Amino acid sequence: MSDFSADFELDGEPEREFHPGVAKRMAHKTVAAGALIRDPDGRFLFVVPNYKPFLDIPGGIVEPGEPPSAACAREVGEEIGLDRPVGRLLLVDWTPGRGPWSDQVQFVFDGGVLEPAAVIRPAADELTGFRWATLEEARADLRASVFRRLSLASTAIATGRLLHAEYGHLLSGA
After folding, report:
1. What is the predicted pLDDT for the residue at 2?
2. What is the pTM of this model?
């Protein structure tokens, strides 16, 4: 994680609440970060979580005080045992809360191309495995919103643009 101590010093003392308790009552969103990792044939690396019925990309929840890029690298290491550099940010997507999950801001980073010799070790406490597939091949095993999100992330790779979406739908003007 980055050391922000110099930035804290430049900003000065933390703000004091004029009305104690206001900050605690404000909404808190979940933030998640994942890596779009590809193989030389252009297929995506999907993980098979043991806690939900759909495929996903390697990644997870950003811890308090942790930058999304650091969380992405940490989660990739924890979930699949790879120490990979986190590439550029491809997409920021907001998803509404549904079921047990709160609404989230999702960051998708470029995980680069993984060489065939790389060893993937799925974390047994979170995953039942992994799968290489194109988006179309994986479509039936992805939530519709995740398919839309990853389609946009793929577009971001191809165009070199950073995209902004809500529930997997590109915002106009983005």
Report:
1. 61
2. 0.89
Asked whether residue 4 is assigned to any structural domain, the reply reads no
Contacts of 5 (CB under 8 A, 6+ apart): none
The answer to the question of residue 21 being in a domain is: no
DSSP secondary structure letter of residue 56: B
Q: Can you tell me the distance from the alpha carbon of 132 to that of 58, in angstroms, rounded to the nearest whole number?
A: 12
Length of the chain: 174
Task: Tell me the C-alpha distance between 41 and 32, whole Å.
Answer: 27
Gap between the Cα atoms of 163 and 129, Å rounded: 29
Residue 68 inside a domain? The answer is: yes
Q: CA separation (Å) from 75 to 26, 32, 136?
A: 27, 10, 25
